[in-house]
Specification:
Elements (H helix, E strand, L loop, with lengths): L2 H14 L2 E4 L7 E5 L7 H6 L9 E5 L18 E5 L5 E2 L12 E5 L6 E2 L12 E5 L20 E4 L1 H5 L3 H7 L5 E4 L8 H14 L3 E4 L7 H4 L4
Parallel strand pairs: 2-3, 3-4, 4-6, 5-7, 6-8, 8-9, 9-10, 10-11
Antiparallel strand pairs: 1-2
Bound molecules: 2-acetamido-2-deoxy-beta-D-glucopyranose (NAG) (7 copies).
One 2-acetamido-2-deoxy-beta-D-glucopyranose binds next to helix 5.
GO cellular component, one term: plasma membrane
Pfam family, one: LRR_8
Keywords: Leucine-rich repeat, Repeat, Signal
C-alpha cells in the first residue's frame, strides 16, 4: 500500500516543491528543501510528525512564504543551516532556538529580507560561521545580535555592518574570530570608507579580511567533503 504515496510525492515535487534526503554527501545527513518548509514535507509526514527528523544539514531554497518561529523544531540536530533565493522578509525571534548545535548559518540572495529580529540567534552558543551575504534590502541586522556567540570564527557581513563595527568590541565578543568576508562592488558609494575601515580592522587585529566573489564566498560550508 506504499506505492500510491510514492507516486503522489513525485507529483508534488513538480507542482509544489519537496524536501529530500541528499545522499551525495557521504557521512552527512543532508536535507534539501525546495519551495516548502521541512515541516510541510512529505518526508516529515511519512516519518511521523511527532518525531524529530535526524538531519544535521538543511539546504533550503526557493521558499516563497514567511518564516514561522516553530519551523526548525522538527530539525533539532542541525549543525548547518543554509537558506537562499527565498522571499521571506523577516527572521523572527527564536527562529533557531530549537537547534542548539548549529555551527554554520548562511543567509544568501534573499531579495526580500529586510529584518532580522534581535533574538533570532538566541541560544546559539556553538555558532562558528555566519554568512549574511547579498540580501539586497536587509536593514536590520547588528553584530550585537550574535554577541553571545563566543565560538565565532568566520563572519561574512553586509558592508554597512562592517562600517559600523567597533573593533575592540569585536575582539571581546569573538575571541576566536579568524576572518571576515565582505563582498564589495567597485561602484559602491561607500567603497572608500569601507576600504579605510578594513585597513583599521587589519591594523588593530590579527584578522584576515577576504574580498569574496559572490560565486565562491561561502563555498567551504557546502562543498562536497574531500
Ligand atoms: C530552486 O530553483 C532553481 C530555479 O528554478 C532550481 O534550479 C533549483 O534546483 C531549486 N532549488 C532546489 C533546492 O530544488
Ligand atoms: C541520528 O543520527 C546519528 C548520526 O548519524 C545516529 O548516531 C543516531 O542513532 C540517529 N538517531 C536516531 C534517533 O535516528
Ligand atoms: C514576495 O513577497 C512579496 C511580499 O513581501 C510579494 O508581494 C511577492 O509576490 C512575493 N514573491 C513571490 C515570488 O512569492
Ligand atoms: C539530537 O538532538 C536531541 C535534542 O537536542 C538530542 O537529545 C540528541 O542527542 C541529538 N542526537 C544526536 C545524534 O546528536
Ligand atoms: C544576488 O541575489 C540576487 C537575488 O536575490 C540574485 O539574482 C543574484 O544572482 C545574486 N548574486 C550572486 C552573484 O549570487
Ligand atoms: C535558551 O537559553 C535560555 C537561557 O539562556 C534557556 O533558559 C532556554 O531553555 C534555552 N532554550 C532552549 C530551547 O533550550
Ligand atoms: C595601517 O598600518 C599601515 C602600516 O603599518 C599604515 O601605513 C597605515 O596608515 C595604517 N592605517 C590606518 C588606517 O591606521
Amino acid at each position: 500500500m506504499m506505492k500510491p504515496l510514492v507516486i503522489l510525492s513525485i507529483v508534488l515535487v513538480h507542482s509544489y516543491g519537496e524536501c529530500e534526503y541528499d545522499s551525495r554527501y557521504i557521512g552527512w545527513k543532508v536535507f534539501r528543501c525546495d519551495q516548502i518548509t521541512p515541516e510541510e514535507s512529505e518526508f516529515n509526514k511519512l516519518h511521523g510528525k511527532e518525531k524529530p527528523l535526524n538531519f544535521t544539514r538543511l539546504y533550503w531554497e526557493n521558499f516563497t512564504g514567511e518564516l514561522d518561529p516553530n519551523t526548525l523544531k522538527v530539525l533539532p540536530n542541525l549543525s548547518t543551516f543554509e537558506l537562499k533565493n527565498s522571499n521571506f522578509s523577516t527572521i523572527p525571534d527564536g527562529f533557531f532556538e530549537a537547534c542548539q548545535d548549529l555551527e554554520d548559518i548562511e543567509l544568501r540572495n534573499n531579495n526580500n529580507l529586510k529584518t532580522i529580529e534581535e533574538n533570532a540567534f538566541k541560544n546559539l552558543t556553538k555558532l562558528r560561521n555566519l554568512f549574511i551575504i547579498n540580501n539586497s534590502i536587509l536593514e536590520d541586522f547588528y553584530l550585537e545580535f550574535v554577541s553571545h556567540c563566543d565560538q565565532m570564527e568566520n563572519l561574512g557581513l553586509p558592508s554597512d555592518v562592517v562600517l559600523s563595527m567597533d573593533i575592540p568590541q569585536l575582539k571581546e565578543w569573538f575571541p576566536k574570530l579568524y576572518s571576515i568576508s565582505i563582498v564589495i562592488y567597485v561602484e559602491m558609494e561607500d567603497s572608500e570608507k569601507i576600504m579605510k575601515k578594513i585597513e583599521d580592522v587589519i591594523n588593530q587585529t590579527e584578522l584576515k579580511i577576504y574580498f569574496r566573489d559572490l560565486n565562491d564566498c561561502c563555498s567551504f560550508i557546502n562543498s562536497y567533503p574531500e
